[in-house]
C-alpha cells in the first residue's frame, strides 16, 4: 500500500505536541509495516526558509524518516511566496497533492492542515484539540486569523476518518463541529520509552550541575502561554515559601510563547526572581532526568487535547499534580492529584500536601508508572494502521 503523509507541520522546528506525535507515530508505523510504502509530502521552500527548521528536524530527531527503506520524501517545488500556494490550495484546490506524489491509496494527516486531494483518495486526519474554538482569547489576533482561515470545521468534515487523541477531543468535535460519532476513533498517544530510563546517581548529579538545578524543585515543562496557567504555579510557589519551604524552587522548561511577560512580571511582583529557574528548551534526555530529580511535576493547564507532558512525567515516575478538566483525568485516572485550575487554593493545598508527604509521592510514583504502562506509541501506531487499512479497503 502507498500511504501519503503530510509532514509540513514539522517545519515549526520544535519537537513537542503535534510534532512529537508526528515523529513518534510515523516511527512506529514505518517500523511495523515494512511492506508498505510511506511517501512523505513537504514543500521545498520550507527547506530554504524559517532558518532551515524542517531540515534540522529531519537531520536530528526525524532522521529515521530518511533512513527507512520504505520511505520516500517528495518536496513540492514552489516559489518562496507562501501566500501564493495558500491561495492555490484554498481557492483553486490545486495542485492535488496525491497526484504530485504519483498516486497514493490513503493519505494520512497527523494534524488538520489545508491540503487538496483528489476526491477518490481517502483522507485520515488526527485532531489533537479544539483550543482555537474553545479559548480564542488565548491567541494573538494574528493566530486567531490564521486559525479562522484554516477553517477546522471544514477540515473535519472533509476527512473520511478522524482520529481523536482523547474522548474529550472526540466529544468536542461532536459538540462544536457536528461530526458524527461513527466517523471518529479515539487513539491515545504514548510516551517514548526514553522516559523509562533509569539514571545512575552520578548521571543525575552531572545533569544537576550542568543545568545549575537547585537541590529541591517543582518542575513544569511547556510553553508560558496563558492557557497553561503558569501564573497560578508562581503563586503556589509563593504560598510554599510563606509556609517555611525556603529551599524549594521552581524550574520552568520549554518555549516562552506570547505573553510570557506576564509570568516574568508576576515573578518580580512576588519577589521570586531567585526562586525560579528558566531553562528554555531542553534535550529529551535532560527532560527525563529533570522528571527523575523533581519533587513533583505540576501542570495546571486550563485545557488539553491530551496532555503529553503529564504522561511523560507518569512514565518517568515523577509525582504529578494536574487539572481535573478536559482530557487530563483520562490520562491520569487516580495516578495524580487533580486540582481545579481556576481555584488557587486548590493548587496550593495539593502542592503543600505532596511536598509534605514523602509516602504520598512514592505512592503516586508507583501508581503513575503503572498507569503509564497502558499507553504506548506501538499500540497507537497499530490502531492507526487499522484505520488506514480500513479506509483503503473501504
Q: How big is the Rg?
A: 22 Å
- As a percent range, the share of strand residues is 15-25%
CATH fold-level label of the largest domain: Rossmann fold
Shape: globular
The major β-sheet equals: 7 strands, parallel
Percent of residues in helices: 40-55%
What layout of secondary structure does this protein have?
Layout: E1 2-6, H1 18-32, E2 37-43, H2 53-59, H3 64-67, E3 71-76, H4 82-92, H5 97-100, E4 106-109, E5 123-127, H6 131-134, H7 141-150, H8 152-158, E6 161-164, H9 167-177, E7 184-186, H10 201-210, E8 217-221, H11 230-242, E9 249-253, H12 260-269, E10 276-280, H13 284-293, E11 296-299, H14 308-316, E12 320-323, H15 328-332, E13 337-339, H16 344-356, H17 358-372, H18 377-393
Parallel strand pairs: 1-2, 1-4, 2-3, 4-5, 5-6, 6-7, 8-9, 8-11, 9-10, 11-12, 12-13
Describe this structure in words.
The structure is a single chain. The chain is α/β, with parallel strands linked by helices and 394 residues long. The protein has 2 domains: 2-190 and 377-393, Glycogen Phosphorylase B (Rossmann fold), CATH 3.40.50; 193-372, Glycogen Phosphorylase B (Rossmann fold). Helix content is 44%, strand content 15%. The protein has helices at 18-32, 53-59, 64-67, 82-92, 97-100, 131-134, 141-150, 152-158, 167-177, 201-210, 230-242, 260-269, 284-293, 308-316, 328-332, 344-356, 358-372, 377-393; strands spanning 2-6, 37-43, 71-76, 106-109, 123-127, 161-164, 184-186, 217-221, 249-253, 276-280, 296-299, 320-323, 337-339. The strands form 2 sheets. Strands 3-2-1-4-5-6-7 form a 7-stranded parallel beta sheet, sandwiched between helices. Helix 15 links the parallel strand 12 and strand 13 (337-339). Helix 1 (18-32) crosses helix 18. The longest helix has 17 residues, at 377-393. The radius of gyration is 22 Å and the shape is globular. The relative contact order is 0.12. The model has no long low-confidence stretch (mean pLDDT 92).
Amino acid at each position: 500500500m502507498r500511504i501519503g503523509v503530510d509532514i509540513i507541520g514539522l517545519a515549526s522546528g520544535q519537537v513537542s505536541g503535534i510534532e512529537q506525535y508526528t515523529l513518534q507515530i510515523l516511527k512506529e508505523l514505518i517500523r511495523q509495516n515494512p511492506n508498505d510504502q510511506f511517501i512523505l509530502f513537504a514543500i521545498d521552500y520550507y527547506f530554504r526558509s524559517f532558518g532551515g527548521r524542517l531540515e534540522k528536524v529531519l537531520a536530528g530527531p526525524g532522521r529515521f524518516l530518511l533512513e527507512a527503506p520504505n520511505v520516500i520524501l517528495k518536496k513540492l517545488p514552489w516559489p518562496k511566496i507562501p501566500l501564493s500556494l495558500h491561495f492555490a490550495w484554498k481557492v483553486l484546490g490545486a495542485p492535488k497533492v496525491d497526484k504530485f506524489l504519483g498516486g497514493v491509496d490513503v493519505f494520512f494527516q497527523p494534524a488538520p492542515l489545508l491540503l487538496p486531494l483528489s476526491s477518490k483518495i481517502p483522507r485520515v486526519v488526527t485532531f489533537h484539540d479544539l483550543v482555537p474554538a474553545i479559548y480564542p482569547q488565548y491567541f494573538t489576533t494574528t493566530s486567531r486569523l490564521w486559525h479562522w482561515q484554516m477553517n477546522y470545521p471544514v477540515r473535519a468534515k472533509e476527512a473520511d476518518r478522524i482520529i481523536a487523541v482523547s474522548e474529550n477531543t472526540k466529544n468536542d468535535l461532536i459538540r462544536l463541529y457536528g461530526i458524527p460519532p461513527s466517523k471518529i476513533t479515539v487513539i491515545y498517544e504514548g510516551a517514548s520509552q526514553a522516559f523509562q530510563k533509569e539514571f545512575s546517581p552520578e548521571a543525575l548529579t552531572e545533569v544537576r550541575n550542568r543545568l545549575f538545578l537547585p537541590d529541591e524543585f517543582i518542575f513544569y515543562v511547556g510553553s508560558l502561554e496563558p492557557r497553561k496557567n503558569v501564573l497560578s504555579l508562581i503563586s503556589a510557589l509563593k504560598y510554599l515559601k510563606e509556609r517555611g519551604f525556603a529551599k524549594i524552587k521552581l524550574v520552568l522548561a520549554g518555549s516562552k510563547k506570547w505573553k510570557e511577560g506576564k509570568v516574568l512580571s508576576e515573578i518580580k511582583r512576588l519577589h521570586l526572581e531567585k526562586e525560579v529557574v528558566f531553562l528554555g528548551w531542553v534535550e529529551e534526555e535532560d527532560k527525563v532526568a529533570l522528571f527523575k530529580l523533581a519533587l513533583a511535576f505540576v501542570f495546571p493547564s486550563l485545557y488539553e487535547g491530551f496532555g503529553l507532558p503529564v504522561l511523560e512525567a507518569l512514565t518517568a515516575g515523577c509525582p504529578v499534580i494536574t487539572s481535573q478538566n478536559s482530557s487530563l483525568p483520562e490520562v491520569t485516572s487516580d495516578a495524580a492529584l487533580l486540582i481545579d485550575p481556576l481555584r488557587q487554593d486548590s493548587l496550593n493545598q495539593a502542592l503543600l500536601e505532596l511536598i509534605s508527604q514523602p509516602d504520598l509521592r512514592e505512592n503516586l510514583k508507583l501508581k503513575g508508572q503503572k498507569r503509564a504502562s497502558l499507553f504506548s506509541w506501538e499500540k497507537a501506531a497499530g490502531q492507526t494502521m487499522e484505520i488506514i487499512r480500513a479506509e483503503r479497503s473501504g
